Amino acid sequence: TLHSAPGTAARPKMPSRNIEIGVSTPTVADLKKHLALATDQWQANFCVVPLAHPRYWRDHRRPRAEQFTRSDLVLDSNAWCRLVVGKLSPWIRLDSADEALRKQSEAAFKQEVAWAAHLNVPAVMLPPVGSDAVNYAHCVNQALLSAPHIQFWVRVPITHPPQSTAEAAGGDEDGSSGTGAWASWNRLRCLCEHAPNLGVSLELGADLPDDEAELERWLGEPLRAVVTPAVAYLTNKRGYPTLSRRHQAALARLLQHKPRLLVSGRADAHSEGLGAHVQYLRYLVSQRLAPSQQERYEAPYYDFLQAPLQPLQDNLESQTYETFEKDPVKYERYERAVYLYLCQRHQPGGEPAVVMVVGAGRGPLVAATLRASAASGRRVRAFAVEKNPNAVVTLRGRCATEAGWDAVTVVPGDMREWEAPVLADLLVSELLGSWGDNELSPECLDGAQRYLKPGGASIPTDYTSYVAPLSSSRLWNEVKHFKDLAHFETQYVVKVHNAYPMCAPQPCFVFTHPSDARTVAEIGAIDNSRVAQLSFDVPLGGELHGFIGYFHSTLWDDGSEAVHISTEPSTESVGMFSWFPLFIPLRTPVLVPEGGRVEAAFWRNASRHRVWYEWALTEPQPSPIHNPNGRSYHIGL
Questions:
Q1: Is 439 a catalytic residue?
Q2: How far, in Å, CA of 331 to CA of 324, rounded?
Q3: pTM
Q4: pLDDT tens figures, 74-125
Q5: From residue 476, how far is each of 472, 499, 615 by CA, in Å?
């Protein structure tokens, strides 16, 4: 079950068939025979095939009578769409200074893309792009719009420039090396309006970047394939191809996003052809650990946008409660916090401690409190306050049937309106959101502390929201898909996966409980609005698509031991899955230069009837203030 501690048993290895592996050779003389060789003998899943005959040079001024490529009848439609990825002619130079060559290249580009669309191949491999390839971008953008069902993969060598100038469609070799390769890709992506069917085919050459962050940055890009040229392989003692340890580590990191793998090279690169390389890649894939139980739970939510809860308007369903209750970390931490509180503040055999669990749900915090009471030898009198009438049914059922629950009083209703018969020694709550305070924990606990004794305590005692710049083409495109302003002014709960955090997060908003306010007037005067202006140094730079939000909370600190729960990476509660991070999008992505600085402002606004957030970028260039006056999104009180 999900209650099992992570890593308590040996995890099996990952089946190698989970990743598709293909081959690419310079020429394909007989397509049927080549596919049979690649799929049957080499055990590849697909082949990258030139869309036109490599010797067919097209001159727009003097059309040729013969066919520029093979007939589509060579394969059936199922084979074309399953086994073949198209590749453009290598001589195409869309930004050539020679006007005749440029026009020939444009005509050939359009003809080959049209042929790929006719064949219904799933993807087309594009040549590397130079730093000034504006016409390249113009032609690609037209293809993206005219053939939206085709994925276009731009080949990007991670360090090496193209082997010849003919391979660089933009004619600038420096743009295809190191950081310049990413800059050229980013320029193309921006000129094509972040089209969702434009992706990267990242080539790992013989040498890898010295800076590991260079590889990490590609994790925020739409990585469709990873190419390993045959010339980048070493040869082991048995004469078979192998990759260096650095290449293996880089490949393992990239495989987290499940790209296709591709071996490129001559068919005679080894005595067994490219099949030896394919089998080696299958071996590497099979050595990955299978997903843990937590990873299997989280996988369906990778990069899936969810609006945060409206806690005072939404009643959770039974299945949602059940999922949260399976968290193997959260309730153990809460139990420990209550145990430390009881040991510090109360004596064995003394008067029962009055503990009020506010927002009790189906009772997991109540059960944790009762276990802490038994373990500490301190008696408790518990109140379970819950507004969801359906969860109240469950709470009353547990009181009637479970041992120890006779000390629990179930209170149906809003914690802010209930008139408690006694004052509490301790308030216990799990009202935190993905960004700490974004599900109205401050407002709810302010209202509940009316029935807290002077000197009473709260679990949690404090929580801090954190935020960091994020590069994620995938998440930004998910928001863009809605085609309206409101969704760019909404924050989303999301298990961030295809993303690159550009630097470490910084604290944003801080809340502590309880405050000294007790009367209705004092509580009404509490100001839960906040503003934070933050500055981030970004060493590598990249395309900024928004921000990622976390939280860190202290449940209890008795001076000798502190109990925390956290989603902030440096203090993360490993194994806790009740909260995913928060994605805070920007309406327009912004390029952050290498060694640049990101400055942003965040506001938490509160009125009598609602709470909302606003945010804006101020450096490297100002953005509009997002969600002014909560026009697109707010949380109702």
A1: yes
A2: 10
A3: 0.89
A4: 999 999 999 999 999 988 999 999 998 999 899 999 999 999 999 999 999 9
A5: 6, 10, 16
